[in-house]
Design brief:
By secondary structure, the protein is an alpha/beta fold. The protein has helices spanning 16-20, 234-237, 248-253, 277-291, 306-317, 354-369, 385-396, 421-429, 433-440; strands at residues 22-32, 35-49, 59-61, 66-72, 84-91, 101-104, 110-112, 143-145, 151-154, 158-159, 165-166, 172-174, 177-180, 186-192, 199-205, 216-222, 257-262, 294-304, 324-328, 345-350, 374-379, 402-407. It is elongated and about 75 Å long.
Length: 444
């Protein structure tokens, strides 16, 4: 996901001094609910820069909206300017060209952050179980990762902390390095499963100060069908489902391992007959548990669409594997869900995701029939963070082992976005930290 080489265009003589003091430029990316975006460029100079003299008009980035400019001591985002060799040019994540995760739509067009119909997608080619949508074994990628690269021009004078003035230049500088926030903290591996003969590529986040004398929880995230057979890092850039657990904020509260497999093909479809990658995933969880100091009583699973179905299915087939599950926009045949009555679940679905909503209603109904309490609530998907925090507190107050939140019809998508309610569910669900806090407090 690297950028292109540093531009070497000829420079007017009056700007030669400035150009000679520029060391390069780094693209900075961040993952949002709808995918990874290029959100800043850090220009490195040979001397510390005076941040007080910078403004949003000091730099221009081709095709992008500059929102903030400040000095820093590293190619990193900061709340305020601090004198250093880097000038950070922040960019609007709402720019059309910001998105680095681009997916195909059912109609053949492209969209950013809007996956093609996945197994439980009721829009477009969804429908009755087994009809439409990707099938088990399908290896056609539903999305691509765009290289993070940007072109920046210094449009106004930059002043060093010693008073030297680096004049404006018309020379375009192209980024030659990339910093991927949180994503770069994961490592990539492969797992050869002797039991199934399958090979799984996977991403693993190891806590920063990992101490093998301690016992750590582990979170398994499983992606939707749009991410099959892309780069190993695909599950990390398609949305927040994996990286949210590895953020500095979450790790400060709950140190944990985060495991995110990249599936080379669709594992399960609406016929509910998974491929052997399903069992290979369970074996991968066990293998990572044996390799590191992981608490078997605090393993958790989560996933969206296909991954949500897998979370449900794994809890049914392997009821002792996980302590709790965060299920986002998925379903499973109600007649098979009896083992879920003994599980701790947090379920999120949109009311206008016909298939997943009906499926989760049937699942929670079966759980209640088995005598397990289910706490329910209807949320507005457009709520601000403070309202979501209150929503979580209110649902937790019911003290049920199963929490079921449905997003009100029409609140998971923006008008004209081209995103279905199904897809929009996980764009929002993984932005709510209170749900993750609840999951991380559960134990077998």
């Amino acid at each position: 996901m690297g950028g292109t080489a540093l531009a070497a265009a000829a420079e007017p003589s009056e700007t030669a001094a400035t150009a000679g003091h520029v060391r390069g430029a780094t693209a900075i990316t961040k993952v949002f609910g709808d995918g990874q975006k290029l959100i800043a460029v850090a220009v490195e100079y040979d001397r510390d820069i005076d941040g007080s003299a910078l403004s949003t008009s000091t730099f221009a980035v081709t095709g992008r909206t500059v929102t903030k400019v400040y000095a820093n001591s590293a190619a990193a985002l900061a709340e305020r300017s601090r004198d250093g060799r880097f000038v950070v040019v922040e960019l609007s994540p709402d720019d059309d060209s910001a998105a680095l995760w681009v997916t195909q739509q059912g109609g053949g067009g492209t969209s950013t952050g809007s996956p093609s119909p996945s197994p439980s997608d009721s829009g477009g080619s969804g429908g009755a179980p087994g009809a439409g949508g990707p099938k088990v074994g399908d290896s056609t990628p539903g999305g691509t990762i765009v290289a993070a690269t940007a072109s920046v021009v210094q449009k106004d004078t930059v002043r060093t902390t010693h008073g030297t003035r680096y004049a404006a230049t018309g020379t375009t500088l192209t980024t030659s390095a990339v910093v991927n926030l949180v994503v770069d903290d994961f490592r990539q591996f492969t797992f050869d499963d002797p039991a199934t003969g399958q090979t799984l590529r996977y991403n693993l986040f190891v806590p920063k100060d990992y101490d093998p004398r301690k016992r750590y929880p582990l979170v398994l995230f499983m992606h939707d069908a749009s991410v099959v057979n892309v780069a190993t890092e695909g599950p990390l850039v398609q949305g927040l489902g994996a990286v949210c657990w590895a953020s500095a904020e979450d790790q400060a509260k709950h140190e944990s391992f985060v495991l995110a497999p990249e599936y080379g093909s669709v594992v399960i479809d609406d016929d509910y007959e998974p491929s052997t990658l399903f069992d290979a995933t369970a074996n991968l969880v066990r293998a990572v548990t044996e390799q590191y100091s992981i608490d078997e009583n605090r393993r958790y699973t989560t996933g969206q669409s296909m991954g949500a179905m897998m979370s449900l299915g794994l809890n049914i087939r392997y009821p002792d594997l996980f302590a709790a599950a965060f299920v986002v926009a998925g379903q499973w045949p109600a007649e098979q869900v009896a083992p879920l009555a003994d599980k701790k679940l947090w379920i999120v679905v949109s009311q206008d995701d016909d298939k997943a909503y009906a499926g989760e209603n049937a699942i929670t109904g079966a759980i209640e029939d088995a005598g397990t309490q289910v706490a329910t609530a209807v949320w507005d998907g457009q709520s601000a963070a403070a309202q979501f925090a209150a929503d979580v507190r209110n649902l937790k107050a019911q003290k049920a082992p199963v929490n079921y939140a449905s997003f009100l019809t029409g609140t998971t998508v923006s008008s004209g976005s081209g995103t279905s309610a199904h897809m929009g569910t996980w764009h929002i669900a993984y932005t709510i930290p209170g749900i993750r806090d609840w999951i991380m407090r559960q134990s077998k």
